[in-house]
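yo

u said u wanted the structure for the complex thing, so here. seqs first:
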Amino acid sequence: MLPYVFKRLLQAVPILLAVAALVFVMFSVIPGDFASTQSSDGRSVIDAEAVARMNMQFGLDEPVHVRFGKYAAKLLTLDLGTSFRTRQPVVNSLSERIWPSLQLAMAAMLFAIAFGVPLGFLAALKPGGWVDMQSMVVAVSGLSLPQFWLGLMLMYTFALLLGWFPSFGYGDGNPRYLVLPAVALGVAPLALLARTTRAAVLEVMNADFVRTARAKGNSEVRVMRWHVARNAAVIVLTTLGLQFGSIMGGAVVIEKLFAWPGIGSLLVDSVSLRDIPVVQACILLLVLFFLIVNIIVDVLCALIDPRIKYS
Amino acid sequence: MTLAAFSVQNFGAQAQEPRRGGTIRFTAPYAASFVSNDSHVSNQIQDDIYGKALHRSLYNWDSANNKPVLELAKSVEVSADGLVHTFKLRDDALFHNGRKMVADDIIWTFTRLMDGSKSYPAARYVRLLKGAIDVEKGQAKEISGLKKIDDFTLEMTFTERTEPGFLFNAATTSIYPAKEAQAPDFFNKPIGLGPFKFVEHVPGSRMVFERWEKFYKPGKPYADKLVISPMGEAAARDVAFRNKEIDVSILGPTQYVAYKADPNLSKGILEVAEVFTRNMGMNPGFKPFADKRVRQAINHAIDSELIIKRLVRDKAYRATGWLPLSSPAYDKAMQPYDFNPEKAKKLLTEAGYPDGFEFEWTATPNESWGMPIVEATIPMLAKVGIKVKVKPVEGSALGGIVAKGDFQAYIWSNTSGPDPLTAMKCFHSATPQSACNYTTYKNPTVDKLLDEAGTTGDVNKRLDLVKQANAIVYADAPVWFFNYNKAVLAYQPWLHGLQPNATELALQYFEDLWIDASSPAAK
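structre next:
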């Protein structure tokens, strides 16, 4: 298993470099640069000389391939560069934001697992029944509701009308501040997990080995726990890993809406200010996180199902 | 001169005795985060908001009288040629570590701002000091135009006649403690001269401050604590405000209508004519726009009043020139271009475009001065034969596109104050397009008037010359004069002491704010 994990980590390197190159090229071709964003609100003016000086300071006056070469060389030494706007190392900005983002992602995922998996399981036990119909409503709604709108509705209902939770902010570690953004972020993965769990359980329930287990006189609880749940878990876990990607993507909207101090809000501000080193670092971090989560999921799948062999 | 409208209730509240204590919960409404803890690195208004709590500059903005006033100096003497300014500095201004501010701190701060390797935005102001450019280019280590007479007397020599109050009042020119600011961890816990001390910054969520007991204005600040939360989303701010979690919120057109219609919320609305002019700039490099009559025709063809009323929801004032209502050089006698399609057609025919023409209009999605406005004008312009092809761009790209002249027409909101001469210099032919002469406007009479205004020491004469230049620019119509921004701030009934700051309503002097016992954060 360890060689497999090591191999997967090594495979992540070219993926990260490819993402870095893609982001770099994209920000080289779209209009706007850091210097011009300084006057983009029309409040202050910035003359050509100042623009030229800024571009020289940040190396933006060099050809794209030269800039990318320097950037890639730095990246290989784990140097993420310096933020244009703060003039501080990018790693400082990231380190301040990682923990709040992780908190939010984990809370959203826990919410999705806690409600999505049991809902899907119950729906599969009686296909076409009341629970199954309700799970379909939840799934369709959860996947189709825009996160921004959902976040606002949660704010309006649970903060303004009911007064149960604060509507925004990070608080002083009080979990009450985490609830609304985590729910807003977790609803879509919840819906998908519910449907995936339902489909997986239904598939496994109709498998030969389940029929055999029942024929051998195993209790229904034992059949469900040892045969159905365990085999369905592999499919559910795989979906879970993929959902981390959408969680991190959704955080960009939710963090900004709830004034949550994570990587998402940092990314939004950095894009609008064309603070490219920070944008690149944020995206690379999100991709790396996604890759690591999926490696963990693969390992867990192998532990749950001994038939899965990684070499 | 500031056109501001306090509600009757707030005026009543101003008469009350300010109450000490409690927490003011302010919002910074222009982004999801502050740029950094270093006020010198960002010229975003977002960062100016916390800068007013933590720092002080040589000057400050007097919102009531709409002019810059001395802040860190007690008096200033100006030489006959207007180039040498001798400041008698405050001897009671203490940094948050208890050390007295001295002339060396100002000299160090301004020298830092001219560090050519750092591109600090305020360098453009300091550059007017004699010898500042030498420091920027690395040819000198000291700004020769800054001379310390003694600890509390500082002489500044400028290269041209200028009003330093307009240069040195923003947080980008905050005075830092010379020695302490060079410590490696200074910006983890910055100290300044402002009314509140830094406590913590949770990036993207809040900045927290506590009262600086030794602030030089006796009895101020009133509040024990100040929490500023960056909240770039208007809808989220709206919920938080209605939920009484924040004390103020900046309103957009839609919320403005909703708040005005609400019997409770309408009691706490502060409106100010800010120093921004919304306009459509026309590039004379595009042949039809080279003709003044075409530009005038566009001003006549668009029913600006109707757009302001229906689309901008009255959250704007009709523009009657470049200089806004809050400018000391605003000319009340000026009348807006009337909505007159017939006249527009006639002007187009005279200019050689009886069948009109087509042009490309660069616009951002901004609801007050972007795509929605352009879309509203399209049928109006079509009636006089002018077709519009819209070129949508992202907000942060507009500045670069316009500064490079890569447009036929653009729509933007540009600062047109508070210094009327600086605002009008954007129409001086010597001002490059990359600075702010975006329409490459050129008129020798305007140049002459502005040059004369820049050299005269007579304030009234200067204002009169600027007014004349403004009138000529208005007649030449290098832009479609759309509206002046009406900034609207909603505030809770327990918050008192707000100032109608025309330079930016979100910029408040926190030492003057106080909350009464009805605030949820009164204790």
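The first strand of chain B starts at residue 4 and ends at 5. Residues 1-14 of chain B have pLDDT under 50 and may be disordered.
cya
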